[in-house]
Design brief:
The longest helix has 37 residues, at 382-418. This protein is 31% helix and 10% strand.
Amino acid sequence: MASFAISTPKRKAALTKASLSASDLLSLFKRPEAETNVAIHAAELMDTTVELIRQLVYSQEKRHGNMSGVLSGHHLSTLADVTGCAAQLRPIQCSDTCLADKYRSIDGTCNNRKNPLWGAANTAYTRWLPADYEDGFSVPKGWNESKTYNGFPLPLVRQVSHEILHTRNENISLDSSYTHMLVEWGQWIDHDMDLTPQSGSTISFMGGADCSHSCLNRSPCFPIQIPDGDTRLGRGMKCLPFIRSSPACGSGESSFLLGQLQPREQLNSLTSFVDGSMIYGSAASLARKLRNFTQELGLLAVNQEFSDGALPLLPFAAKKFPNPCALTRNSCLANASDVPCFVAGDSRANEHLGMQALHTVFLRESNRIAATLHQLNPQWSGEILYQETRKIIGAYLQIINWRDYVPKILGPEATEAFLPPYSGYNESVDPRISNVFATAAFRFAHVTINPLLSRLDENYEEHPRHPSLSLHQSFFSPWRIVEEGGIDPILRGEIFSFAKLQTPTQMMPAELTEKLFHPKQALSLDLAALNLQRGRDHGLQGYNSWRRFCGLQEAHTFSDLRHILNSSYLAHKLLKLYGTPENIDVWIGAIAEPLLPSARVGELLACLLGRQLQALRDGDRFWWEKEGVFSPRQRDELAKVTLFGILCENTHLHLLPADVFSTSHFPDDFISCKSPQISNVDLTAWKEDPTDTPCGPVPLVEGAFFVHCKASVFFECRPGYVLEGPSSITCHAETREWSTVLPVCQDVDECEPSRVNPCPSSRICVNLPGGFECACEGSLTLSQDGTTCISRSGVKGPGCG
């Protein structure tokens, strides 16, 4: 019987050695949270177990779609329960409380009450077209190298990258209209919407081959083959490691759970919604880790070791050896920097310096808002301050994205066609991220990345102490922020340097095709090849199928393709590799199209992006413009938000262009952060007056916080107290009176005999209102260092340690 490995002992052993490969880094920055790991493990255990049984019974036969002859329905259901796959698909019970209707769940569940899993984390992407696998079920195209499609073999993805996309760093053209902040924002907002976890194992399920070393297709290993003669990544290299995305329960081998056989689907480990999940997380376990619970202030945790000119930095993750966030600094990992990776709501926060800078800015903005709301509403608990802040930040992201970013990408015509004025929430609109959007369409900006990361001084000139970097030098480098001037030089570079311009002959710079996640003395990855391989891994249909889906002209001949792409050069290159337009991968076909007027995408991408963005807006029950989500005055204030204002509030920058996405001239186009023409969001619109209700002032409950929610007031006891009685009271409109029964916050006696003594054995526990203290017995007193009980003469008392 074939060997089976879900766990990763070899990978764990490899990561304890003093070396990390680029594929290790890719796995690290896509590391899933505990809840996602459970979903991955369940799906792969189910998928592989069924496949092992299939091979055992039909070792010499072709795959049979119907398993009824091998396992009964009862056996399959039992297997689903044992592996945990059934639990992933159990119905969700949505709370009907007022607060559950006021604030999003952290994992996106119950946004749509009729379909509670729409848009939720750890659920499958949606499909706009059926999956297209080599076997019609789960095997990606290109798995069988001898197989032909429409009479032609598929080209190796590395070959497509080398012959069409690869561009020398010095040969790129720059975008005279838009800054690199536009590129950065696209990645930032993408990290709010989707993250596809890789297989939970890096060892093949059938045979035990290590995916980091094997060049054979053995699931989950699907290595990127390197064409003969391609030595740019190192002589003798035959392949680049590639690990398939994890399947989702309810698809592939476990699809019987949904009543019919369905092809393999992939997981989105994030919420689909633009809700700030890259800041706050999409899982309850991570969300709690990111918070500061030392005070009831609703704050996020910040770095306790370093600051950026008195402004906070992201907290550190647990230190590891080897340190994956020091590879750009030291050739010898044994002497690696002790500055570890940052931790944030998204595991990709450390990917490069630009992403780390935006994460830092929004961490600061979240805490600034929470602190302001606390001043305005001291009656709010830390939980309410956190939820209100998270709600405001989510609105900021939606407004900046749909108002300031999207029209620049889609252009005016496509924006008007796909995003007409908001007309309200539509519960029939499916807001889930589509597989083609996550795996191909929203990766369009990869061909607009500048290979140089600029770092500028206060005069927007090359920083004298911290010069600009080649992009690969910024990968996994939080130590540069700690030790090389903080985030300000990076942000100046983002808002003043140009984005790369996409042209038919200048697709992707070598920084991304030859040096992606380039650790010293180790093999790099190729972003273009990864994108193409991932599209095949996910069973995406080809370029023509998606043009047909969007009602656009298809390419059947060289003439058709040349006309659509407006480029004989690209049409010739693509057909030389693919043989026929029918075989062209959707990502390369889509980014090869000429840009629409005043846009940064062609007509196919405008369709796919526009369709997804419309669904995310209209299918979000908490969209900022929806009636009742915010008050009219709050909506008026929210509409004033700009990225300019957020940067001014949370950095040491003083002069900025009003539109940080558009190119500008210094100092003519720059304005002061203190300029009177700038109108910032006034958070006093969130101030609640406890006396202004139809029933008069809110009744006070000693030791309790409270918050309004429609006609009710919800109470939460301060730390050290427990709520007894109803958690809320209601203002009755008919009588204009409050509910007669009030809750009580009862002091918790931490010192009662039935509890474990919280004090050291040498001291006694003394209960206090809302807490306790550890005191010394009798005539003894606590030493100055607070560690021992001593007599007043300074001698340690008996039993004191």
